[in-house]
Amino acid sequence: MKQGFAALAAVVLAQAVVPGAALAETVYVRAGRLVDTEKGAVLPARLIRVDDGRVVSVTADGPVPQGARVVDWSAYTVLPGLIDMHVHLADLEQSENVAEPLLHAPMEIAYIGARNARRTLLAGFTSVHDVGCFRAFADVELRNAINRGDVIGPRMSAVGAYVTIPGGGGEVTGFAPDVKVPDDMRAGVVTDAANTVEKVNYLFQHGVDSIKLIATGAVLAQGTEPGQQELTEEEMHAAVTTAAARGSWVTAHAHGAEGIKSAIRAGVKSIEHASLIDDEGIALAKAKGVFLDMDIYNGDFINDYGKAHGWPADMLRKNVDTTDAQREGFRKAVKAGVKLTFGTDAGVYPHGLNARQFKYMVRYGMTPMQAIQSATTVSADLLGWSKDVGALSPGHFGDMIAVSGDPLADITVLENVQHVMKGGDVVK
């Protein structure tokens, strides 16, 4: 046991954020070009001043006070730190073994979460919405550890656990019926609207930022179908009203067309996946101002990697059933002017590859600037963090990245981030 804690301590120390004392000084960042995500413009040669971790001015490049700390990114294009609205940091990556989550203790998940958080930040994603883990509240504790400076990682919004029906898309399934699943893997299982209120309150009592509903079946869960609605509209409305009473909001995992519309009518703020959305659902999302968070990259990863590694045939079949439909729905949503955030479902594929989705968003209808804004200003709006992240105007955190080349000409340059700053501290 002592050796285990010593090892954990070593990981924590190895991944500790650069000393917070840096936040007490002024930092000047020279940007060769600056992508202004609020104006949708690219500005030449800018000087960004960061005091105590926040931007205080953005001006034309020029002299700085003698002895000032300067970060020279004049050879790069600088953007606000990116945001991924659909990650699973505090959990295992998907595998062919449906019982894999049962083979790993919470202590191990803590190590894994620290590793995934670091990879995500170094890939240029300085903020994330972590939308669920099988070990309840592992994401909450990871968020807290990052906020304390114990481990390096992005700013996190956490949901704590999946709110799902028994045996639904948010459960660990696919093994013998006499196998007992640990209680902490069933913290969000609900049976009716009253029970939903109870469970949602329980999640908030234990530190979650928002709520994640599993409205329909899932692609990567055994015994569920993506198009099948699982939570009732009444149950989803109960979750929404309970969260609203706490000043928070709800997102819904929903593949099926009817489940999507039911979740929107129930009052959710966003829809995850939206794979089988129909024209009526797109129009409803537009009318209600609901965000769609569509992970249009990872269908290719699931197909290629899953086939090569023997993932269950049922999973692969459901992935085929949803991938092309989701991309066509995304194309229609772009044309309709629906609010589209950047969400990848990282954890299905290896963390740190989040930016691979940008080229798919451009391929299916977005301009490069729209794709960048989806991962900055639009996602910040959904989080309710627009004053803090998603842009580099005064008042925002000094979260920024530097890339070689022009992402407006070639969006794939975002897949190779050269430098990362979080809160005025250079972490890469």
Walk me through this protein's architecture.
By secondary structure, the protein is α/β, with parallel strands linked by helices. The protein folds into two domains: 12-81 and 390-426, Urease, subunit C, domain 1; 82-383, TIM Barrel (Alpha-Beta Barrel). Helix content is 34%, strand content 20%. It is built from eleven helices and 16 strands. It has helices at residues 2-14, 106-122, 138-148, 193-205, 233-245, 257-266, 279-288, 298-308, 313-336, 357-363, 368-383, and strands spanning 26-36, 41-51, 54-60, 69-80, 82-87, 125-130, 155-158, 162-163, 211-214, 250-254, 270-273, 291-293, 340-341, 400-403, 419-422, 425-426. The chain has a seven-stranded mixed beta sheet with strand order 3-2-1-4-14-15-16, with no helix packed on it. A six-stranded parallel beta sheet has the order 8-9-10-11-12-13. Helix 2 (106-122) links the parallel strand 5 (82-87) and strand 6 (125-130). It is globular and about 70 Å long. Residues 1-23 have low confidence and may be disordered.
Describe the SSE topology:
Blueprint: H1 2-14, E1 26-36, E2 41-51, E3 54-60, E4 69-80, E5 82-87, H2 106-122, E6 125-130, H3 138-148, E7 155-158, E8 162-163, H4 193-205, E9 211-214, H5 233-245, E10 250-254, H6 257-266, E11 270-273, H7 279-288, E12 291-293, H8 298-308, H9 313-336, E13 340-341, H10 357-363, H11 368-383, E14 400-403, E15 419-422, E16 425-426
Parallel strand pairs: 1-4, 5-6, 6-7, 8-9, 9-10, 10-11, 11-12, 12-13
Antiparallel strand pairs: 1-2, 2-3, 4-14, 14-15, 15-16
Helix pairs in contact: 4-5, 5-6, 6-7, 7-9, 8-9, 10-11
